[in-house]
Amino acid sequence: MGTRIRWWMAAAAALAAAGPVHGAASWVSIDSLDPGSPAHAVAAHPQDSAYVAAATRTGVYLSSDEGRSWALVRRLSPLAVPRAIAMGAGAPPLIAVMTSDSAAVSADGGRHWSAAFRPPAGEGDAPAACTAIAVHPRRNTTLLLGTNRGMYLTTDAGTSWRRVGIPPSAGEVLQAAFDSAEPDRAWVLGRGGLWFGSWRDDAWRRLDVSDEPEENADGEEADQRGAGPLGGERASLPLLRTLAVAPSGSAVYLMSPAGLNVTRDHGRRWERRPALGLDAGTVRVLLASLQEPHGLIAATARDIAAAGTSEARWSRLEGGLAGAEIHDLAVAPGVLWAATARGLFRRPAPGGEVEPPPAASELLRNFLHEPTAAEVQAAAVRYAEVSPEKIARWRRQARLQGLLPSVSVGLDRDRDTFITSRGSTSDPETDRIIIAEDPSRSFDVSVNWDLGELIWNDDQTSIDVRAKLMVQLRNDIVDQVTRLYFERRQTQLAMLLEPEAPLAGYVERELRLQELTAQLDGLTGGFFSDKSSFPAQPHREDPDGATP
To answer: Mean pLDDT for the chain?
Structure first.
């Protein structure tokens, strides 16, 4: 487990140098494709990752070197809006482009194109709209074109088209896909539900997308009443969103707001599982990856996520898109492409069973080289000399004061003077005055014990006041240290899990990390840095090669 976390941390740090939640890969912008223009559609070769085609309002571009260089192979009318691109196998590959009202096919990599096919107008001469296109996985010149008034088929790379006899109740075709296991059959998702049948003999049946076996599996159309994946009426748009067929033909996946629906027996029985971490009701593209075992990739308007076919939780594929609106996805061997409002992006395709990102507890193990929050708090309290032991020591010393006596020392010094008169009154000359002094000294020592102070001392009142102020100061210090500690940890995790931040944002976070470290050192007397054995930091370069 430790090895896995160290690898994940190192990979994420490397992404920071190039650029969470998921995976060790980052999206890379393809700046050589029609710079400044949104990419509306993208298609990739099912066998050779070198070939990829993309459409902008300018036209259709083809790359034969994994997107390093591009050639404009078909210029579009300024009024045409590219809706989708499809690519078949072969070298050079078949390319089909669909706009809002027509479709054109090139069987030689864009050198020559068929005449644009425009579906016939319906009643009232309202123009038909093209809505979906698909290339046969084995027959390179066979394509299906869905419209708002049915579906059309070509078997000669767009030279001629015929109408497919799908029942009118299918309504507008939203998505079409050939079945990988049965080449003469196809899946059609329309506003009237999901259909499966033969495009060769026009035998179609509507499928009940529920977890109960379909009773009328052999009929041309199944009963259209009953419970669908959400209960009540059977699912139809916008309840059924998009479908994907596994390249091996082993399963078909259908996304609805209730989650992912899976069938492994051509729609006779469906298994439903939740799509945790994915807004399933807004999925606009669903793909099955080419690696074995197959994984799934889904795109909403703003997010792209992946999951293993047996998993209920989806992991976001972040790292560079920065919220760009997503128009289309394409997957090639080892490569995932995204057409967005900010242009074309690519990244390594996720494996079949997507490894989830490490759990929070695993990520936090990477910071064991730093002191814990409790250790930093204790160091700050010691440094500020506001520990509870100091107050307890004061109280203990005040009580012990009663065992110490009060000592008084006295020193007295006395001096007595005696005056004596001697003589005769008749003879004054014989009078004598005699003065004598008698000095004396005394010394005394007294010792007094007040044992009552063992129970209560007047100093306790002063200690109580000072203790209250000290507790308040200690709480303020602990709160400040705790806030700084976990803000620093959040900054570390943000740098790890969000490597797509631009260089300016990365430098700002690095400076904030250093600021928080300095503040913790200031509150602990350098304890935090002294006790941290910092690992080597990754060397980050900006896109132009400069280093911060």
So the answer is: 78
> Could you tell me which of 386, 418, 379 has the C-alpha nearest to residue 529?
379
Sheet holding 203-206, edge to edge: 173-178, 185-190, 193-198, 203-206
Angle at which helix 459-497 crosses helix 388-400, to 10 degrees, equals 170
- Residues spanned by CATH 2.130.10.10 within the chain? 22-356
Q: How far is the C-alpha of 386 from the C-alpha of 471, rounded, in Å? A: 7
Question: Does position 27 have pLDDT exceeding 50, yes or no?
Answer: yes
User: Can you give the pLDDT at residue 515?
Assistant: 93
**Could you say which DSSP state residue 155 is in?**
S
pLDDT band at 423; cut points 50, 70, 90: low
* Backbone region of residue 381 per phi and psi (left: phi > 0; alpha: psi in -120 to 50; beta: other values): alpha
Mean predicted confidence (pLDDT) in 122-151? 85
pLDDT of residue 486: 93
CATH among 1.10.3720.10, 1.10.443.10, 2.130.10.10, 3.30.990.10 for 22-356: 2.130.10.10
Query: Facing residues of 29 across strands?
Result: 345
CB atoms within 10 A of CB 504: 10
- Please tell me the pTM assigned to this model: 0.58
CA–CA separation, 22 and 347 (whole Å): 12
Answer yes or no: are the C-beta atoms of 415 and 442 closer than 8 Å: no
